[in-house]
Amino acid sequence: MKRSVITGVGRFLPERIVTNEELSNLFDTTPEWIVERTGIQERRFFDPDKDTVASMAASASRMAMEQAGITNPKEIDFIVFATITPDYFFPGSGVLMQRELGMEGIGALDLRNACSGFIYALSVADNFIKTGMYKKILVVGAEIQTSAMELSDRGRNIAVIFGDGAGAVVLEAAEADDKAGILSTHLYADGTYAEELYIKDPGSSRHKKYTAEMLTGESVLPYMNGNAVFKHAIVRFSQAINDALNHNGLTKDDIDLLIPHQANLRISNYLKDHLKLTDDQVFNNIMHYGNTTAASIPIAMSEAIEKGKLKSGDLLCVAAFGSGFTWASSLIRMR
Ligand code: UT7
Q1: This prediction's pTM
Q2: Does the active-site annotation cover 288?
Q3: Which of 7, 57, 108, 165 is the 20 to 30 Å CA partner of 301?
Q4: What b-and-e string marks burial along 301-332, b requiring 16 or more CB atoms within 10 Å of the CB?
Q5: Annotation marks residue 261 as catalytic
Q6: Domains located in the chain, CATH noted
Q7: Whose CA is nearest to atom 9 of ligand 1?
């Protein structure tokens, strides 16, 4: 059986930086509250005249391919695209990015597993490579979330946290005895809590037809029971990380770097303390980008590599938790 190795990582962040000060002029919050409760100092908002989910993903993918030494995008033979904010209701953004990169013909699979989306996508790609079905896969996480936000008192618990961005990795087939590569992926879900973090409409059921009233109502806005999400997240993140370590006969001391999905700095800090990791073992960039859902892990990987925090031979642990609820983890030996 083949093994899959990450050979390139890329990211794209829209230019517009929105500070906590700017948000506090729009609704009832303070920069101090946002920093204390989330760790976020600023986030990026997309430019509707320029950025699409597919275009941001294409930029991140170009960077990942360049790092992987892929000069012709046609070398890629499959796309797995994670987003909960596709450009169209359908088709998914995977085909749009494929068109933009000139890779017509190859398969493009869209996944909508929210904050766990990137690890779910990685797991699917890893298994396609292991079976020998594909050799070079682009695995993407990209989101434009700020267009669904309401910058008002009513929408503030969402508006302070989420941001826009895209990240991508190139996953390539390697021989089974290669030391680098994905050691394992672990995926979980519990639909009991589906309505604790969701956007209800425009859903296909409950309405005979879409109505103007529905489309301008509260049901098209994201809803999050922040406390419930937080409490489940800290338990599930830890469980997923421990499962990955146990599965590979490793301990937390073997982890060179943990990149938790950037949900809230308090969640990352809880994990660091709970798992007794050092500051150097955990990478966070939520301070600058907020929570970018499926994009947060590949964006953080890309930055960690650039800052020299994630190096060849390192054991990387990634873990995520989010809407569904879904949660996931993976252990990766960097090439
Ligand atoms: O990516 C996965 C999905 N999301 C997450 O993982 C997010 C998980 N949850 C969280 O990050 C946190 O629950 C939040 C950041 C959303 C909220 O923080 P919290 O510490 O759970 O705050 P809270 O909802 O318990 O509210 C505490 C207080 C309340 O005031 P009182 O009742 O104590 O007087 C809120 O009204 O803070 C108030 N509050 C705010 N104040 C200023 C809530 N939101 C805000 C706000 N600005 N944006």
Answers
A1: 0.97
A2: no
A3: 108
A4: bbbbbeeebbeeebbbbbbbbbbbbbbbbbbb
A5: yes
A6: 3-174 (3.40.47.10), 181-333 (3.40.47.10)
A7: 226
